[in-house]
């Protein structure tokens, strides 16, 4: 059986004056060669790793508190504490520390906490102790002055504390308190207030244990009712005995636990309500009081957590339908306080605490308690956040995202549970989440467009976008059935750019799925219209909105989403055809025309596919040999009009095959020449920034105006070397312009960089650029 006497928790005091739990282990004391002295060692009970290695320094002040705590400072602003499971273990280690420092183990502190000045040390050397006045009613003023004069000096505070401990002085003072109250001696009660307040500022655990004992604590609180700065005394005892009544909703069988709960509540009340707010100089003088409360709460949580019968009864009554509402309310209040106490635990201990509650059945209990769904409660709190910056709403949105993330759902043998939960969420909760969105998008523009509303809608869109990516089936049905995308795109008319971009990001996520159900929904409802309108209203401004919209259309082009390509060109080409500072829309038009060609000549399309597949299957070395043979063939050796066919393909030289292919190649050459001319013009003239204005409003005919103006950018037509000047690109002859278009195609200036229209064309052009000039001439002449 494990020795529990030496079982401890290691704590360090952080910058916020809160104790951080560093782990649980077993403490020992031994000589450490590296530290050259006796040291305290704590090894973790989980893996045996070293949690603490601290040399017992002869001049370090160690304090023993509450019989199970040892506290000391390793260095400035670095405090340590060992919390023992058993008093015997604490006493054993305390004796070791006192032995090293040559102190009597009966003391609770081994050294003075703060060094005194030389003068104070000299003055106090002659007096071994502090003599207190006799505890009488007539000498209360003298006692109050002595306490007040001792507080500024740490050494005098120490001597005063020892005198109060040794003579049982506090209990004598409390007896005088009863006499003063009976005689209604207000002056004496004011002196007792100052005396008891001063004793608190001595910051001494041994004194706290006397003051907070069952027989003394209410009298201590009574003394603190008579503040001389107040015209009337406070009624703290009346509140604690009559208003704040202790209720055992579940009987507590352990008397020690029950006494600890009473004590902690009253001490917390003293700290929060009775004692005056400490000044800057007094704040650190109450650190031991904070520690007393902290470790009491840790101990209470631990004792309750280990009492399985208590927790079992608690959750059984919470879930029992026969439990009346008043009783259930009391059980819930206890559970609330229990969880509040757990906040004193460190993260790893809190995790274990909530795991225990989960195992005991807290979730079914909460389900019975709540009249409405917990998720809807979270959503409503998020929507109703009154903070202008929506700080609480952001945190709640993060919580919702965690709840609906399939990756966070526990894997079970029954894989349908995730689907069931998501089905439940979309049936009972999604309408609550989207209510602000639907209420604000009933017209062509947002009905409310203030900053706080825009922030809230942006949060909702962020979660909806997450759902599009991770929920697929459920969110798709919801979007299509509720026409959510149309409502979202209304927000592109918002004056807040971040909200308009959130709406665009939502649509971009949908398009990125390349799902034909979504695509048909978009085309049927003409849901590119708000995007095109926003693009044209943005004009020639080179901003995030401009780039994001172009990127969306570029994705459609590169991924060759045929249905959306055809829809965009057939319905919006007139509005977009003059946008030539990027090649995205012209590239879409080319894709569209290629689709039409394939539809008009399906036989040609199938043969080209066959030839392409055959080409890719050939060995790379064979292909290189055939190309080398072709390039080595002199033009004069070839008959006019003779088709050049590699030897491996000669068997396919059939009239039925070659006739449509010849026609296709003629059309392709014609198109390539047209494209090269367009590219050459664009390259020579620089980037143009046309201004667009398109009206989609009802009752007026759609009008489009284009004003092409050259940009005065470096290298633009407005800079030196403009067309027509000597040596400018405008003077290039027609015979060399085609070559220029081919070799400088990659140098186009645009908002979006994207690969060329056809990967095969890229490969051919790369090869062409590496050829000797004579071979390039062959290609051009062909």
TrEMBL record:
Annotated Gene3D superfamilies: Pleckstrin-homology domain (PH domain)/Phosphotyrosine-binding domain (PTB)
GO molecular function (one): protein phosphatase activator activity
InterPro entries attached to this UniProt entry: EVH1_PP4R3, P4R3-like_central_dom, PH-like_dom_sf, PP4R3-like
Compositional bias segments (type: Low complexity): 691-716, 728-737
Residue ranges constituting the Serine/threonine-protein phosphatase 4 regulatory subunit 3-like central domain according to the UniProt record: 142-371, 372-594
Domain PP4R3 EVH1-like, residue spans: 5-101
GO biological process: DNA damage response
Bias-annotated ranges (Acidic residues): 632-642, 754-768
GO cellular component: nucleoplasm; protein phosphatase 4 complex
A Pfam family of this chain: PP4R3
Coiled coil residues, start to end: none
Protein origin, superkingdom: Eukaryota
Disordered: annotated segments: 632-660, 687-782
Family: Belongs to the SMEK family.
Protein name: SMEK homolog 1
